[in-house]
Design brief:
2 helices, 27 strands, mainly beta, Hemopexin, 322 residues, four-stranded antiparallel β-sheet
Length: 322
């Protein structure tokens, strides 16, 4: 917003006041008022406020090690990638946790910072003291130097009628989960789900409910196996497919992380968030991503201050107009 400032002498108090003139009219503020000072601060901060980029947590299933953002990662590792700077860090090494090397099939990050993973095959920890199936979701505390087992976050039998291989998983709003499976059909609440479909579960009530959240037949040209999924908002998700697919005339390669947006007419392509083929922020080649989680940034303190200031300005103007 372009503002023109002119100074005038207060008619009765002799105090200096400033008139801010914009397209929406004049705003009169006392130079000693908190509102004036906050607005001035907001205008100073506005050019420097930047919204942080999302972070991508993922695991690949390539047979060889891959390098990304200065980090060498093997299958079974979970890496966090800053999608703006391209800097990566390894947040989980399966060799520090499981009894043997495991392939990570699904990954999610809880609000408490704990990691949730599912493995492609049966796995164990602490010399087989703790055993898991491919349908178990394992909660892990990654805050310390070595990952610590918290326990089973969920079992596939709590969601589906039968034990299934969880192929993708994401927590949504409180009490809800998204899941894809590596078998077809999977049944929950008498609903059949194919291996490219995403099921939505709500467990916050007296009994759990299931519904079809994303139907791959309505989006992809061919039957697609959705290998990874991440909840972004009630009307947007991020997915990655096992093979190259076509979506509304667009080629989506394996290893791409694609954002889909839901409207009244259904799901549609929005943008490619990550491309494994990219030589800048990717591997420089197609690498299948078996597990994906997108961490969306929170508004910065400066941005919140700016929004708060203009809310105060708007409130003050409405009050003065009464």
């Amino acid at each position: 917003m372009s503002l023109h400032v002119r100074q005038a002498q207060g008619r009765f108090t002799g105090m200096k006041v400033f008139f801010f003139k914009s397209r929406t009219g004049n705003m009169l503020m006392n130079s000693r008022s908190p509102l004036f000072l906050l607005t001035a601060l907001a205008l100073l901060l506005a050019p420097t406020i930047a919204v942080a980029a999302p972070s991508l947590y993922f695991s690949h299933n390539a047979s060889r090690s891959r390098k990304l953002g200065g980090v060498t990662m093997d299958k079974g590792d979970v890496v966090r990638l800053d999608m703006e700077t391209g800097v990566a860090e390894k947040v989980f090494d399966d060799r520090d946790f499981f009894d043997k090397r495991e392939n990570i099939d699904a990954v999610d990050l809880l609000s408490n910072g704990h990691l949730v993973v599912s493995t492609t095959s049966s796995a164990s920890t602490d010399r087989r003291s703790n055993r898991f199936t491919s349908g178990d979701l394992i909660e892990i505390d990654i805050s310390g130097p070595t990952p610590l087992l918290v326990g089973k976050f969920l079992e596939s039998g709590q969601l589906y009628t039968t034990t299934e291989d969880i192929n993708g998983f994401s927590t949504g709003p409180a009490g809800s989960f998204l899941s894809t499976v590596d078998s077809s059909p999977a049944v929950a609440n008498s609903i059949s789900f194919d291996d490219g479909d995403t099921a939505s579960f709500y467990t916050g009530g007296p009994s759990s409910t299931a519904s079809l959240y994303f139907d791959e037949d309505t989006v992809f040209k061919n039957n697609a196996n959705v290998d990874a999924i991440s909840f972004l908002s009630p009307d947007s998700i991020a997915i990655s497919t096992r093979a190259t697919e076509w979506m509304a005339g667009r080629k989506v390669r394996r290893g791409d992380v694609v954002k889909l947006t839901r409207t009244d007419s259904g799901w549609s392509f929005s943008e490619i968030l990550f491309s494994g083929r990219s030589s800048n922020l990717g591997f420089g080649r197609d690498v299948n991503l078996d597990a994906v989680y997108i961490s969306m940034p929170e508004p910065s303190g400066g941005l919140l201050l700016l929004l708060g200031v203009f809310t105060l300005v708007g409130t003050g103007r409405r009050t003065a107009a009464r």
